[in-house]
Amino acid sequence: MQCPKCRKVPLLDGYLEHQFAVKYCQECKGTWIPAKEYEAWQASQPSDQKMPDLPPESLNVDFVKSPFDAKAALCPECQRYLSRAKVNLKTPFYVERCSHCRGIWCDYGEWDILERLGLHTIVEQLFTNEWQSKTREQQLWQKERQATAEKLGNELGAQVIELGELLAAHPNGDFGVAYLMRRVGGNWQKHNQK
Length: 194
Known about the structure:
Layout (H helix, E strand, L loop, with lengths): L11 E5 L3 E5 L6 E3 L1 H9 L39 E5 L5 E5 L6 E3 L3 H8 L11 H24 L1 H16 L3 H21 L1
């Protein structure tokens, strides 16, 4: 069995934190987690595991992404392309999984981060449409926050975002939005007419 990232380096037998048998690459330090081993270990975990909310972008995780993270890979067991699921942190990374044999590939350090985030017991859920959709929504929200801060400055941008969240949660929030549009829209028209 060859490393899916280094391609010609054989994977060696090992254990992941003395919990279950894995294969690892001595070169890139990635880990192949066979589905049989992972699922047996997963079944021994508390049964109340549910998909947590997405981790916040600013989560302070000391993590240096592997240079192999962006590299496409084939499953070392069945030679099919590995699917990728994005874990959206300040430094985002991808976990990979074979959709055929269900084995999981973690580049160096990724398993540790999954464990710190509480995602290590539900890796398969990261590949669901629900998780991927939430990840895309989170990315768009982060870009919107950044653009707001760039246009209005950090302080006013933060106030606008906070106000937007308050109005969205209020039963009559649309009234507040309409007021702001009239107020700001009127000033904008006057400014452009001069």
